[in-house]
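Task card 7
Instruction: Convert sequence to structure tokens.
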Amino acid sequence: MSERTDERRWAAVEEAIELLHEDDVDGAVEALRAVLLADADNVHAHYYLGLAFMRRDKAGAALAAFGEAAHRDPEHLGAQVYRGWCLYELGRFEEAIDAGERALAISADDDDALHLLGIANAETGRKAAAMEYLERFLKGRPSAENRVDAEALLITLRGGATVMPQA
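Output:
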């Protein structure tokens, strides 16, 4: 794809991104669908449509949008990671692990992919892998909430208490 084409595709989604920032998710979805009617290969539109559907807790629709983005650009880190999170939300843990591994192949230390792989491996009973990914995740800069959740899961996986002690 030429640089000019990519610039044009970014410009096409600017309004929708602004609508998402303004929390007008329905308006963003409408704008992104219009972009995709004009250019079905616009990876950015597929990706942001996925984000919009995630904001509406529509994991299946978000998965389809992220899948289209990842299909059109297999190196799109965000599409791979969020595709994995959608699969996780849908209880499709093996596929979520595959998506997380694809994301790590793009960016070896991606916090979101490491977090996804940690909890998805825990769901499938792969304790050693889950602990490895969660420990790597904690070496990054997770949010306070994600840090607490990951630390609690690590304690559980190590056979410790399942409830964090009161401070």
